[in-house]
Amino acid sequence: MSFFSIKFFIFLPVVLVLYFAAGRKGKSDISKVVLVLSSMIFFLMYGASSFLILLASTVINLIFSRLLAEKKNKFLLGTGIVINVLPLLAFKYLNFFGENIARIAGGQFTAIDIIQPVAISYYTFQMITWCVDSYRGETKNTPVLDYLAYVWFFPRIILGPITRHDEFIPQINDRSKFIPDPENIATGFVWFTVGMSKKLLLASRFAGASVYGFSLGSGMSLAEGWFCSIAYTFQIYLDFSGYCDMAAGVAKMFNIDIPMNFNSPYKADSISDFWKRWHISLTSFLRKYVYFPLGGNRKGKVRTYINMMAIFVISGFWHGANWTFILWGTLHGLVMVAERLTGDALKKIPKVIRVAATFALVNIGWVLFASADISQAGTFLKEMFSFDNIMPAAAFYDSFEMGTIPFIRYHLNLAVPALYVLTFICLQLTKNIYEKKYKPCFGTALITGILFVWSFLYANTVSDFIYFKF
Fold first, then answer.
1. Which range is least confidently modeled, 116-125, 358-367, 413-422?
2. Which of 167, 310, 343, 399 is the most buried (most CB within 10 A)?
3. Is residue 356 part of a domain?
4. pTM of the full predicted structure?
5. In this structure, are 59 and 153 located in the same domain?
6. How many domains does the chain contain in total?
C-alpha cells in the first residue's frame, strides 16, 4: 500500500481513530493489537508471499530470542543469525552467485525465477539486532505483543529506518502515547507533506533526466554526463529521504518517534561526514553489529582499515546483487581509509572546497550505484570526463517535462540549470524535519495544504521509491 495512494489516505485515519479510541479507555493492549493487525493488513497489500515470509521470520526469531534469553549461547546466536541471513541470500543473491560461479567455471547458468520478498533487506537486519540484543539479555521479558508491534510497525516496515528495540518498545509502553496529541498529529502531517513533496514534486522531476542519461550511454556530452549524474544524486536523496520524512510523520501521528535517517548529507565535508548523515540507521547497524564485533579500531591501524572496508563492502552488497553495488561500497570504503590516513590535513582545506569535493565524489559513486552493470558505469564515467562533445542536446532539456509551463518552455536552457542551482542551495540551507520546529499558524497550514494538494495531483504519475527494490 503506497504512502501516496487513495487506499492509504483512507487506511491511516481509520487506524488512528481505532488506536486512540482504545487508548482513551485505558486499553493500551487493545491499541497495540490495532497497531499490529493494521500493520499486517498494510503489509499484506504487498502480496501474500511476502507476508507469509515475514510472518515465518517473526515466529522463528521470537523462538530464538526466547531461547537466547534463557541461555546465553554463542552457537545458538550464530544459528539465529544464519537463519536470518539465508533467506536474504536465497531470494536476493542466488542468481548472482550462480552466474559468477558459472562464469569462473566456464559454464552457463540459467537464471531462476525467484520472488523478491518486500522489505526483506530491512527486516533481516532488524531481526539480527533483535537476536543479538536478546543474546545480550536486553530483550528479556518483552511481551509478545510488544515484539509484534516492533517488527510490524507499518510506517517503517517497508524502507526503514532500521530501528532497535530500545528505540521503539519503551514508547509503546508509555500510556501517554495512547492519547491523541493534536500538536503531534499536526506536526506529523507537515512532515508527511514535506516528504511527499520531495518525492512527487522534486525527485520525480529529476528522474526523467537520470533515465535519459543512463539510457544514452556513449552518446552523451560532457555537460549531459554531469547534469544527468547530478540529477540522479538529487533524485535518490529526495526520493529516499522523502519516504523517511513520510514514515516519521505517520509515526509522529501515533505519538511515536522513529530514528532520524538523514541529516542533510550533501552538506558533508568528507565521506566520513557523509556517512554520519546518509542512511543513518544502516550506518548505525553496521557499526554496532559488524564493525565493533570485528574489533573496530581496537586492534591496530591495519585491522581498523580492514574492518572499515568490510562494512562498506557489506553495505554495497546489501543494496543489491550486482558488482556495481560492491564497487560503490568499495569506493566509499577506500576514500574513508584515505581520509583516516591523512589525519587532520584535510581540515586545513577551506570547507567550501571540501563540501564541493565530497559532493563530486558522492556523485561519481552514484553513477556506479545507478548503472545496470560495470560496462554501463564505465561508459557513463568516461563521457563525464570527455571533451569531444560538451553541450547538452535539446532532448536533455525535454527530459524535465517543463515544456508545457508558460514562459519556461522558451527558456529551458536557463530554467533547467536554475533548477539545479536552486535545489543545491535548498539542500545546503534547509534544516531536516527533526531540527525545524513547526509552529501551528495560518501560514504553515496554508503552505502545507497547497503542497499536499499539489503533490497529490502527481500521485498517479510516479513510480515506487527507488530504495523499494533494495
1. 413-422
2. 399
3. yes
4. 0.92
5. yes
6. 2
